[in-house]
Amino acid sequence: MNQTPDDEVTRKSRDIVLGESWKAPLAAEFAAPYMADLRAFLLAERAAGKRIFPPAKLWFHALDATPLDSVKVVILGQDPYHGEGQAHGLCFSVPPGVRPPPSLGNIYKELEADLGLPRPRHGNLESWAQQGVLLLNSVLTVEMAQAASHQGRGWERFTDAVIACVNAQAQPVVFMLWGAYAQRKAAFVDASRHLVLKAAHPSPLSAHNGFLGCRHFSQANAFLMAHGRTPVDWALPDAG
């Protein structure tokens, strides 16, 4: 069978973009039937003319940006932003030039209250990812303007495996679980070895019910330093 352009895009996303440190631990997931079903679904959606966010080359950007052996903190999101130009493969983050969404604005408010950091004018969290903050959505794709449209298609099983890989690491990691969805998803994390921090979701609908004032960022750094790991510089570069 001749390879189509979409086949090539998904092949590159799987085989090239995925960070090297993740390939072997996740090899069984890529070989599993559910992943073939997920790939077929995504190809069919694209063939039907539907726009999928983020671009295929960024589906695994969270893993590409943060190697497994460098993960210090895990922040879990649910699914990508579904607006034009917003999603770029890191949960809660948007590319340079895109206005920070409300949930990210509340994250910035908590950073300011917790660590005294001024609120950034952009929403690009790439520098966190480069320092070992795994910014992982549970579902890695979405149809434009259709929130949660790719839930239940297989991504959740894949990202469960990602979390299990981190949970199995020898070095202690901080899990920031914001909202009931994230807390259910990572319920199996070994809290005797890792620090599991729970709070309400930073959405404007729930941030005042326990997210604002949670002080997760200072707690994370205190835990990392206590275990001989370099703390995260949560201040974001001005340029985004």
Automatic annotation (TrEMBL):
CDD domains associated with the record: UDG-F1-like (cd10027)
Pfam family, one: UDG
Gene Ontology BP terms: base-excision repair, AP site formation via deaminated base removal
SMART domains registered for this protein in UniProt: UDG (SM00986), UreE_C (SM00987)
Keywords on record: Cytoplasm, DNA damage, DNA repair, Glycosidase, Hydrolase
Gene3D superfamilies: Uracil-DNA glycosylase-like domain (3.40.470.10)
Primary site of residence: cytoplasm
Assigned EC number: 3.2.2.27
Cellular-component GO terms for this entry: cytoplasm
Subcellular location, record wording: Cytoplasm
EC class of the enzyme, as a word: hydrolase
UniProt keyword Ligase present: no
Coiled coil: none
Occurrences of domain Uracil-DNA glycosylase-like (ranges): 64-224
PROSITE patterns per the UniProt record, alphabetical: U_DNA_GLYCOSYLASE
One GO molecular-function entry: uracil DNA N-glycosylase activity
Alphabetized HAMAP family for the sequence: UDG
Function noted in UniProt: Excises uracil residues from the DNA which can arise as a result of misincorporation of dUMP residues by DNA polymerase or due to deamination of cytosine.
Protein name, UniProt field: Uracil-DNA glycosylase
Originating organism: Glacieibacterium arshaanense
